[in-house]
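Design job #97: recover the sequence.
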């Protein structure tokens, strides 16, 4: 009985309908094409396209127009890595043109936000080097409190294959700004192969001085003292050489240099203070006090000169 109950007629097998299978495939293809054209519409919606944006940027670096078009594109596609990258780069160059410091800092912050968003979304490897490079420069322009992030992104730019020749220069200045002179010197060595500007030579000389590479420092400073086109850099080189003369015991050479600086810049605080130290070393108390008083007249907050005047010379 139980046998008969469980044994009934075998269920009929349904025939498969080929048209249903074809319909499912067509629906799938339709969904895919719809998605594809929705994504592709980035290139045509509201006249904004990646190629047009690139063309705008490349035709004379039209920063304002590029920024405006990139912002429109981001309104429609807020997570598009290309539009975010171009927007961030345009903000960076817009910041460099800003007349007011507050505006400059705001533009730099917008550049940082856009570029970091692009990196978070995910960039093709071919774009990473350039984005890291501009992001590093944005942090560099924000000032010394941001030098650690500038360092990080300059190094990432190099690792990502960026060929920008000024990366060693920026890294050298970043390390010098953080008083990491040993690292600064190694990057200055590379930077000076491509750039021998007066400002870079002066920064390199200061790093050499701080790593006890005195001869290298003197060579660069003597070169700047005799031929720097910028008067401020030339005077700074003379002041550093005068300090070096004083430290090494060549008092007359130090005195001559300070006097030459003061002929060109009569209110140079460093030169007057240096003269005060020289006169004190020569036991010329009247000359020393007169020099320190001159420092305080020019800079009432000069703590070292005030302390010297309070001491019995």
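Job complete. Output follows.
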């Amino acid at each position: 009985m139980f046998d008969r109950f469980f044994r009934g007629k075998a269920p009929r097998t349904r025939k498969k309908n080929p048209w249903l299978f074809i319909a499912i495939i067509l629906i799938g293809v339709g969904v895919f094409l719809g998605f594809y054209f929705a994504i592709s519409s980035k290139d045509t919606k509201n006249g904004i396209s990646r190629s047009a944006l690139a063309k705008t940027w490349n035709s004379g670096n039209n920063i304002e127009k590029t920024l405006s078009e990139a912002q429109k594109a981001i309104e429609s596609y807020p997570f598009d890595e290309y539009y975010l990258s171009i927007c961030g780069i345009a903000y960076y160059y817009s910041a460099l043109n800003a007349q007011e410091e507050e505006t400059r800092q705001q533009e730099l912050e917008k550049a940082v936000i856009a570029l970091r968003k692009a990196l978070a979304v995910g960039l093709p490897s071919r774009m990473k080097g350039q984005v890291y490079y501009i992001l590093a420069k944005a942090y560099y322009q924000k000032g010394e409190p941001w030098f650690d992030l500038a360092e990080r992104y300059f190094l990432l730019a190099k690792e990502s294959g960026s060929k920008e020749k000024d990366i060693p220069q920026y890294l050298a200045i970043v390390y010098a700004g953080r008083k990491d002179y040993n690292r600064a010197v190694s990057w200055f060595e590379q930077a000076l192969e491509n750039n021998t500007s007066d400002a870079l030579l002066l920064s390199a000389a200061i790093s050499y001085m701080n790593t006890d590479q005195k001869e290298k420092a003197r060579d660069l400073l003597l070169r700047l003292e005799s031929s720097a086109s910028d008067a401020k850099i030339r005077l700074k080189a003379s002041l550093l050489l005068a300090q070096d003369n004083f430290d090494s015991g060549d008092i007359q050479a130090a005195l001559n240099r300070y006097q030459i600086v003061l002929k060109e810049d009569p209110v140079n605080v460093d030169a007057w203070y240096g003269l005060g130290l020289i006169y004190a070393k020569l036991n010329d108390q009247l000359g020393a006090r007169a020099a320190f008083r001159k420092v305080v007249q020019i800079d009432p907050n000069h703590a070292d000169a005030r302390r010297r005047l309070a001491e019995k010379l």
